[in-house]
């Protein structure tokens, strides 16, 4: 059986970096180190049922979520793969409340990495696809060794973003602003090989929407109207969409990236800012979506124009095929019309349900 390509991710990164004569290789190293960490995590995910890595650690993270052993393991692996290289001035992780400085015994560098070490934690035990999401920024602060300011940058300033899906195969998808490229892990040689060069979200994409409709009663009027329209129950849509919801953001996003469609985690009366985190979930996927010809919005604003104020801030998210994200914005505009402040529309609906 012939393998499709022999372009490893390391070679792909180095070739991409050749376009920048001033490049030092530091950036390539960071992406290679993330790819290495992904291999380590993939190894544990693959044998999760056999290893003592299922279940909870007993800790509660800054999100108020019970920490899964795989969340913690993935966090440690990524941290340790990046902390000693001399390329970073710090990190931020879903699993750690504050900015993560580089240990004093190691030199620092001019980049910072933000990551969701294990995305889709609720699916781990059920052997459903989970993932890792990462975002890379340049150091901007005057702080000698880096500080939270270096992580609190709007998404359009990202210099790279990517994710890993631990599914039927392990795939790493990344962008440095020159298109979106997918690599599949060849377990027999432990190499990520280029399998999906230059990914573009099909347009018009498949008529697929992903949302947790269990939250319907807490949704705004505009959000309900949108989903009613997608399902063709408002009488104005002769071609209803299909619903697909895995419950792992990375896996839902990945499917929509390849097939078209869109994912949404709206704000609602219980979570006025939505559930997903801006800096290490929404913003990196937004960079990929835009690079692949799609869009990412809060329903009102481009995700990557949001000026972040805190490491773990949440945002409503509509992401995928551009035409479907625009459709969502049109329905949500109804909420803004009905209420001076969109949040009022949310509360009004939720409370009355
Ligand atoms: O169970 P819900 O409310 O639908 O939320 C599912 C969403 O929460 C998440 O699991 C949150 O991410 P983490 O697992 O990294 O905390 C997303 O992957 C997913 O899209
Ligand atoms: Mg997540
Ligand atoms: Mg997570």
TrEMBL record:
This is Fructose-1,6-bisphosphatase class 1. Mg(2+) 1 binds at residues 94, 116, 118. Homotetramer. Residues 7-197 form the Fructose-1-6-bisphosphatase class I N-terminal domain. Keywords: Carbohydrate metabolism, Cytoplasm, Hydrolase, Magnesium, Metal-binding. Substrate binds at residues 119-122, 212, 245, 275. Pfam families: FBPase, FBPase_C. The gene is fbp. It is found in: Cytoplasm. It catalyses: beta-D-fructose 1,6-bisphosphate + H2O = beta-D-fructose 6-phosphate + phosphate.
């Amino acid at each position: 059986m012939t393998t499709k390509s022999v372009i490893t991710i390391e070679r792909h990164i180095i070739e991409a970096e050749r376009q920048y004569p001033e490049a030092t290789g530091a950036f390539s190293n960071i992406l290679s180190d993330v790819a290495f960490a992904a291999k380590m995590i993939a190894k544990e995910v693959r044998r999760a049922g056999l290893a003592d890595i299922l279940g909870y650690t007993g800790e509660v993270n800054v999100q108020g979520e019970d920490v899964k052993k795989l969340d913690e393991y993935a966090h440690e692996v990524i941290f340790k793969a990046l902390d000693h290289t001399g390329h970073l001035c710090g990190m931020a992780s879903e699993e750690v409340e504050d900015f993560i400085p580089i240990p004093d015994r190691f030199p620092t560098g001019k980049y910072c990495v933000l990551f969701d070490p294990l995305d889709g934690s609720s699916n781990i035990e059920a052997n459903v696809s989970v993932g890792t999401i990462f975002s890379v920024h340049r150091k901007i602060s005057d702080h000698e060794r880096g500080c939270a300011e270096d992580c609190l940058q709007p998404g359009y300033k990202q210099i790279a973003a990517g994710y890993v899906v631990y599914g039927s195969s392990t795939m790493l998808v990344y962008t440095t602003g020159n298109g979106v490229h997918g690599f599949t892990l060849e377990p027999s040689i432990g190499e990520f090989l280029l399998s999906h060069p230059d990914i573009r979200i099909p347009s018009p994409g498949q008529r697929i929407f992903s949302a947790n409709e269990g939250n319907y009663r807490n949704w705004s009027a505009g959000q309900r109207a949108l989903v009613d329209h997608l399902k063709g129950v408002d009488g104005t849509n002769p071609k209803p969409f299909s619903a697909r919801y895995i419950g792992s953001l990375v896996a839902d996003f990945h499917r929509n990236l390849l097939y078209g469609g869109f994912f949404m985690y709206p704000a609602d009366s219980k979570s006025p800012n939505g559930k997903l985190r801006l800096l290490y979930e929404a913003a990196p996927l937004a960079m990929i979506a835009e690079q692949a010809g799609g869009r990412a919005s809060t329903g009102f604003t481009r995700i990557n124009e949001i000026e972040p104020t805190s490491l773990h801030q949440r945002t409503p998210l509509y992401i995928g095929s551009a035409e479907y994200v625009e459709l969502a914005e049109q329905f949500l505009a109804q909420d803004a019309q009905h209420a001076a402040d969109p949040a009022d529309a949310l509360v009004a609906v939720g409370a009355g349900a």
